[in-house]
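queue> pop job 88
queue> type: inverse folding (structure -> sequence)
queue> payload:
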């Protein structure tokens, strides 16, 4: 990690046996706190990896991030899009976003408008107002 070691505060890792006490000691010696995934949540790491893959494929792999502030703005915008507007197939959501009101039935739109998100990297479609 070289000169950048001071920028890290935490190491997040799972409870795999390949990570020994010596492994953790290397980070602890640099004042980096080692945080392990919860033992009662064995799928925690899989969910985190899936989220990282989704963000990379849908957003960050397609743009040049200038600095930490820019990254935070982009990730906040993408998280809002992902949770409030992006359709999802799994978890019984039936192509709805997680924050959609389940009591509202979407009607098919005759006209659709497109809103550009993150400079056109992502497009959101909605029914056009008449």
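queue> result:
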């Amino acid at each position: 990690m070289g000169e950048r070691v001071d920028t890290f505060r935490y190491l997040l890792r799972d409870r795999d046996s390949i990570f020994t006490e010596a492994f953790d000691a290397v980070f602890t010696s640099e004042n980096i706190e080692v945080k392990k995934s919860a033992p009662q949540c064995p799928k925690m790491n899989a969910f985190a990896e899936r989220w990282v893959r989704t963000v990379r494929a849908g957003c960050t792999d397609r743009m040049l991030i200038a600095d930490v502030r820019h990254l935070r703005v982009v990730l906040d915008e993408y998280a809002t899009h992902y949770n409030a507007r992006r359709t999802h197939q799994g978890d019984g959501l039936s192509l709805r976003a997680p924050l959609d009101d389940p009591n509202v039935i979407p009607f098919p739109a005759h006209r659709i408008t497109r809103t550009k998100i993150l400079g056109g990297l992502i497009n959101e479609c909605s029914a056009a107002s008449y």
